[in-house]
Amino acid sequence: MIRAFAIYVVFSVLIPFCHGATLAASPSAGISMATPSPMPLEALTPIPASTKAEEIKRTIEGLIQAGKTDEAFFMCAAAVKGDLKRAEALRPLASTALLQDLNLIRKAMQAHQEETAWNCIRKVWLGLVEPSTASLFPSIKEYQSALLQAYPIVFDSTYAIAVSHKQIGNYPQALKYAEYCLGYKPADPDPRAVQLKTELTSLGAANSAPPAMAQAGIGTPTLPSGGIIGGIQGSALSTPAASSTPAASPSPTPVGGIIGGLPQSATGLELCMTGPQHDGRCWGPENKYGGDLRFGTTNTCNILCFPNSPVPKGGIIRKAVLRGYFKGFAQPVRSTSMVAMIYGEDADNPQPMFPDSLAPALRVRTAQQVEWKLENPQAGQPYESPDISSIIQGLVNRPGYKPGTQLNLIISGGSGICDWVNYEQNAERAFRLMLTY
């Protein structure tokens, strides 16, 4: 174990960006963390072929047991870069570490622990896109599948961090994270990241002196360029084609009176979801879980989650509507109209939709409710709900509400069973909450 720990220390010295700090020798403690400093990453440093595979394996096992799975996966990637023969023995450990890392990122973002999420994101992604990392998977197909699984989590989390910095006026830092979003898939960037960067540039972020990321203990990795993600052309992670309907801006984006008839002095926002955990439904007496959305039935209860509300406590909501894309009426039902009830979740900073979280049907609803009726909706078209400002007003008036809180809406009951596009099916067409206050 002493030799295994020594390998870990050497590995840490070779790649100090993992910790966002340089390492220095200490006569009393052996190794100590110096003041964090940004360490741009040019390439993943391989573990020398002379290092015994068994010692590397024991070290990685120890990291996983200690809960340092991001470092464990990163070390797996460095090990196979140094010698591909190590791959077979490390595959189970790499698989375990990657799965736990993705869950860690989700939970950190849910808890608003952005620095924890980012430190994990950069190590996981930079390890994953290293071409030799493909050897840690049984086949290229499974490696590509892992990339496809990780990309939306990595992108959505980084995008949410960028938006968070934008909300508080930290435009230079927001721009930095927006550029990371573009760097994940440079040949086919997500339109949200493109638009966010454009907005931040117009706000003067590009002309401001960027803050030192070291002050937050965050390194500045250089992401792979050339439109290839770990051996996969950017088109393999293609973004759904934009619809003919103008795309909504990232959440939340001040646009100044975007909803018709409101004064230009009003603050208009479009709040959008940032991950598949932000919409879903439960159905039946057992409250079975599903990620899809189905309105117009008493048998199903849906939830729509909008994180990072910028509305100040007690702010006056002038207008609020939901906008989503209609998929079609359920078969063999031949309905031509839909009726559904919209409520708010009456809770302070309510939780997203996870398989193990409280089912939407069991969550406390607001006294305020709005009936949504649609006549002859057409598949593939966007539709807006009636004004739900009374519901949003009730949420921001809660004693425990504060800016940054997540706003959850519950849709249930009614008639005319129909399906709507959810985040996982098409993030660009996922529900938006358009409000002005």
State the distance separating the first and last CA atoms. 60 Å
Secondary structure: helix percent: 25-40%
Largest sheet: 10 strands, antiparallel
The secondary-structure element order is HEEHHHHHHHEEEEEEEEEEHEE
Task: Throw out a few tags for this protein.
single chain; 437 residues; Jelly Rolls; 2 domains; ten-stranded antiparallel sheet; 9 helices; 14 strands; 32% helix; globular; disordered N terminus
Write structural notes for this entry.
There is one protein chain. This protein is an alpha+beta fold and 437 residues long. It folds into 2 domains: 2-237, no CATH class; 268-436, Jelly Rolls, CATH 2.60.120. The chain has 9 helices and 14 strands. It has helices at residues 2-14, 53-65, 69-82, 87-110, 114-128, 140-167, 171-184, 191-202, 389-396, and strands at 21-26, 30-36, 228-229, 232-233, 268-272, 279-283, 288-290, 293-306, 319-329, 337-345, 365-375, 382-384, 407-420, 432-436. The strands form 3 sheets. Strands 5, 6, 7, 8, 9, 10, 11, 12, 13 and 14 form a 10-stranded antiparallel sheet that branches. Strand 6 and strand 7 (288-290) form a beta hairpin. Helix 3 runs antiparallel to helix 4 (87-110), helix 4 (87-110) packs antiparallel against helix 5 (114-128) and helix 5 packs antiparallel against helix 6. The protein is globular. The N and C termini lie far apart (60 Å). The model is unreliable at 1-42 and 205-266 (pLDDT under 50).
